[in-house]
């Protein structure tokens, strides 16, 4: 760590007060937020120290939701020590085995089915012991979709949105929003993908759940199955989407008169909203936060939008615009 890294030195001193004066912190990763993670050992046991600047990423939602997830029957890291004012935590160490690293053509079906079977447990976490969770409502959705316009189009591509394109995008955004709010509303992790599921002690542990909200029933499933970091043939995705649909019926999260075709429409349009947002977030990570590695993932988000949008006539103009104009411009800047 550079000598100017004051928070690293504060975290080290705080960790030494919690454990012993000799622990040494080793950076293992940052993530797409402002958090950083460090590993250290004490009495031959490994732990994770978390630096989460309190003015940017408060730790209380993570701590409260960890308890609520565990009460629902889910596995998460244990919060062993924390200081809310400093924004520091010590967690149990789950190792380095992400679900992503275990996926291949032979394992994708059983592992994703196992991950999907956890979603009814996530769906039950509509509040913590202290707070009701926020709603993924029209205002929330609008804020997320604006990230695409503001960061991918305007900032990254310096793209001028003429009135006809603005009108088209507004119509698309309205259609996606209507599909999202019309679904049964359950608790959703909001970033449920193969890098946020850890394989540890023959169990799946969930991480990065601090942004859980109440929203559309299909959100976490499409987040998992149309993942920028693990891409599978559409036949695999469609089969697993049907598996989630069946799980929702089994756990009475969907009405028995809900047809799979209706669920598929919800699933597809919810995924489109997510990938519009993600494309904007990846651009924002580059321009605002200096995390340029995510630029290479923008084309995959656009490919998903083109592939899925092509299934529905109402998105034909969006698909043509992305395919002919936006995707080539994004790829030219890689």
TrEMBL record:
The keyword ATP-binding applies. It comes from Parashewanella curva. GO terms for molecular function: ATP binding; transferase activity. PANTHER family: N-ACETYLMURAMATE_N-ACETYLGLUCOSAMINE KINASE, TRNA THREONYLCARBAMOYLADENOSINE BIOSYNTHESIS PROTEIN TSAE. Coiled coil: none annotated. The keyword Nucleotide-binding applies. It holds the Pfam family APH. This is Aminoglycoside phosphotransferase. Keywords: ATP-binding, Nucleotide-binding, Transferase. Residues 25-243 form the Aminoglycoside phosphotransferase domain.
């Amino acid at each position: 760590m550079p000598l100017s890294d004051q928070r690293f030195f504060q975290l080290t001193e705080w960790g030494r007060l919690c454990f012993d004066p000799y622990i040494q912190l080793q950076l293992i990763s940052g993530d797409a937020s402002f958090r950083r993670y460090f590993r250290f050992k004490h009495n031959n046991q490994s732990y994770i120290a978390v630096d989460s600047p309190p003015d940017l990423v408060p730790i209380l939602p993570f701590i409260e939701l960890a308890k609520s997830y565990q009460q629902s029957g889910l596995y998460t890291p244990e919060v062993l020590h924390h200081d809310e004012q400093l924004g520091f935590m010590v967690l149990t160490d789950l190792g380095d085995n992400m679900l992503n690293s275990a996926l291949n053509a032979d394992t994708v079906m059983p592992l994703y089915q196992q991950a999907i079977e956890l979603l009814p447990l996530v769906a039950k976490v509509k509040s913590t012991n202290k707070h009701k969770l926020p709603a993924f409502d029209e205002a929330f959705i609008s804020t997320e979709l604006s990230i695409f316009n503001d960061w991918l189009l305007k900032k990254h591509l310096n793209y001028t949105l003429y009135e006809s394109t603005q009108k088209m995008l507004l119509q698309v955004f309205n259609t996606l929003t209507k599909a999202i709010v019309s679904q049964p509303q359950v608790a959703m992790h909001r970033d449920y993908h193969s890098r946020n599921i850890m394989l540890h002690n023959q169990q799946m542990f969930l991480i990065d759940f601090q942004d859980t909200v109440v929203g559309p029933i299909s959100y976490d499933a499409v987040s998992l199955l149309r993942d920028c970091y693990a891409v599978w043939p559409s036949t695999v995705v469609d089969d697993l989407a049907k598996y989630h649909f069946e799980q929702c019926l089994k756990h009475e999260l969907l009405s028995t008169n809900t047809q799979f075709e209706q669920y598929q429409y919800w699933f597809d349009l919810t995924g489109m909203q997510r990938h519009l947002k993600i494309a904007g977030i990846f651009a924002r990570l580059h321009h605002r936060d200096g995390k340029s590695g995510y630029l290479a993932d923008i084309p995959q988000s656009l490919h998903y939008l083109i592939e899925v949008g092509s299934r529905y006539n109402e998105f034909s103009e969006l698909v043509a615009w992305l395919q002919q104009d936006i995707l080539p411009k994004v790829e030219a800047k890689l």
